[in-house]
Amino acid sequence: MALIEIDINSLEKDKLYPDEDFLALSNLPCQIGETPEERTKYFKENLESYQDYLKDSLQKMGNCCYLGIIPPAAISRITKWCCNEVKILNKWSYKDVDKKDGVVPFHDQEEGQILRLLTQCFAKREFQLDELLFLCQKKF
User: Fold this and answer.
1) What is the superkingdom listed in this entry's lineage (predicted)?
2) 59 closest CA partner among 104, 123, 95, 4
3) pTM
4) Given a cut of 60, is residue 102 above it in pLDDT?
5) Where exactly are the structural domains of the chain?
6) Interacting residues of 25 by C-beta distance below 8 A, sequence separation 6+
């Protein structure tokens, strides 16, 4: 498993789109398939219609799609790890959504923040350990 960080400032902005998993597992009001897999397939095939959700995808999931070839110079960092070493990330795999209006791929903001902090930790980025421990203690 690898985390590849891209400097999106060096990419063409009109080719940036929200992540299809973010769209599929959020609670956007649409009648497209009943399973996350069916919804993911739909959004992947119709991604151009949902560019307005790019900011939500970046803020709430921390990633997005790029429809084009990413130049090697845009790759700012690659971090690799073994899947067995990061089993906790499977808990935060965007499989659950609230049944509220809006785009919410987590039950609450704390879950999204936990995923972001864990990702920063496993990517060997600077992160707030105290905040992560506090949120985990509160959730569990």
Assistant:
1) Bacteria
2) 104
3) 0.67
4) no
5) 2-139
6) 36, 39, 40, 94, 95, 97, 105
